[in-house]
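User: Show me an example of a complex going from sequences to structure tokens.

Assistant: Sure. Here are the input components:
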Amino acid sequence: MVAMAVFVSAACGGGGTTSGSGSNVTFAAPVSQTGAFGQAEGLYTLQGYKFCVQTLNSKGGISYGGQSHQVKLVIEDDQSVAATSAQIVDQFHDQGDKLILSPYGSAGTTAVAPVVERNAQVMVDSNGADTAIFSHGYKNTFAVLSPSSSYVTSIIDALSALSPAPKTVAIIAASDGFSQHAAEQGVTEAKAKGMTVVPSATAYTSSTKVTANATDVSSALIAIKGTNPDVIIISAHLNEAVAAVKQASELGVKPKDGFAATVAPPTPAFISALGKSSEGIFGSTQWVPEISASDPVFGSAHEFLTNFTNTYGWSSQQYPYQAADAAAGCEALALAIEKAGSVDPAAVRTALVGLKADTFYGHIEFDSTGMNTSKPMYVIQIQKSAFVTIYPSNLATKQAIWPAVS
Amino acid sequence: MAEILRGRARSRQGLFREWIRTRTPANSWPALVGLAVFVAMLGLQQLIEPGTQRLLTSVFLFVALAQAWNIIGGYTGYASFGQVAFFGLGAYTVAVLMNSYHVSFWAALPVAVVVGVVFAVAIGVPLLRLRGHYFAIATLGAAEGAREVINNLTSVTGGGGGITIPTFGTDAPTPYFGKPGFYLAFLVLAAVSVALATVLARSRFGYSMVAVHEDEDAAGAIGINTTVVKVVAFGVSAAIVACAGAFYAFQQIEFYPTDVFDASFTVLMVIMVVIGGSGSVGGPLVGAVGLQLLSQFLRVNLGSFNQLIFGAIIVLVVVFFPQGVVIYVRDAWRTRHFSVLDNVRRYRL
């Protein structure tokens, strides 16, 4: 209770005193427990939400109206199908659940956002980064994570800081909107850093484009093979990234310096799937425990990592950053309720618009479209089966192994 | 059969008169029950929450899709695994017309149906010469190809970045229907598809489809133009699916190629027809309603095990009722013989 009082003061600049226990506050989320995301990304998201709710409740719940309120998490499996996520959120609306946490991924979040808007619910998006979600003028969707435009650009920035910096990069991109947009921004950044994109700057839309969630990306690798890039960057999700690294070896496609990928490398499932082949691969990530950030609920970023990995049995060397995204989304919603002093979705939305919070995840503040553009992204490298932060340099715990392939 | 198939052409008015003349309580009750259910579903809309309306909307969607698959896969015997191509094309036709050309949904809808039918005829003429597994694989490939074309026509379709149908403010060519509107739209679509399947099944053309299914060579020998029958059946099936895709696109507002060309749509259509009973009107209806509601129940109540249990139930139903639940019940009722083990022996041993 005391911790929550501190939490309210620190995060919201004041608040009432608590005098008892109030009714439960319900957070509702469609989460992928089965289907394409069920065994990895959906699971990590679910664990992040559960860990957040468990931690909030252990510290007295959410305080408003002079009372503390325990948080109840309602989840339903969306089977990794975007339309099912939308259907579930409609049913949440029937049940009176107005405070929504997003499903995993841009496709699901894209489908849910208009439903939330029409139902006058409010959603905090923890794992849908596609900037397209925020281009339609939706007023009730807020994302804590950095947008898709940052995923490949952060990798390019990290690579350009290495010595010698790569001169040529090839970009394989999945066909989904998030991956294509990330690749598009990456090409622009590569050109700005003086790199040449091979086989061409637009290849990610044609010859090196692969079907989303594909397990065969050989056509893209064959298109790259003759160009001998210094680095191959994979703008995709887990399945495509694993396939690209495996099939590159089989097809004899060997970049001079190494591989990099968005989303996939900073997940335990990537190392499990590739074993030693994952060594040296760079990956962009939304969160690393080295950041200097803390809040009264989760403590410091390192404390979040320790407590989360202990709770769910992950190694602290291989932690799913998606869980941190999810916990941060959940925390942002709790903070907004405290600030609003109400669970009324309109009041919570207003509170989210003006939210400025420093959390274990970093600074959370939304721009006029609902994106948290102030938060940077980070780059890790897999070294001895551990995630090692290598970018930005002030957070680096070790030197990058470079070139990353021998 | 030959006499029926060679029967002289009759005017529509004559057919209708004969249909009225031949009505008896015994053969009218399915139509009356269907009409009563339709009216009841219209009334039900006033009593249920918007989220439940959306659930029922998905049930109606699959009723239409299963009936459509049954026309080509059940009656005609050509198991198409590419139905989702028509669904995706219908969806994208509406989305592109509304998004880029500001065409109203009601004007875009018939265009979507035409696009679906034209594509069905274009691939049907060569592919319907294949039989069995070869036809199934070829249609699967056609659907994958259609998705990739949509994926790569970025300037028109938005490619992998998805497409949005404007539904807000003055940009919206047609006001968004909302959940009550889509409930009605999909209910009518389901009812029309059931009615169409019923009429087809009892028509001369329906008998031709069954003849092609039973023995295509024999059907040809008695004067049926089997190519025309197959292509028309494929086209009718595609028209329903494309129409469903068009409504689905408008309902979703924003979607990606992977959403509307998802092969699991086709797989579900096939499973629903097989579970319910192919080559009947009631089979796809019961299969679609049963499986959609079962899937929802399991998803809400069983968490991460829901798909496992769902799959196990499908396997059990296929093993014990290989002819489909509706046909089992119909035959068992007629013969007053309800032994499931005997049923398994009859069809399996």
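The lines above are the inputs; the final block is the predicted structure for all two components together. Residues 5 and 19 of chain B are 17 Å apart (CA to CA).
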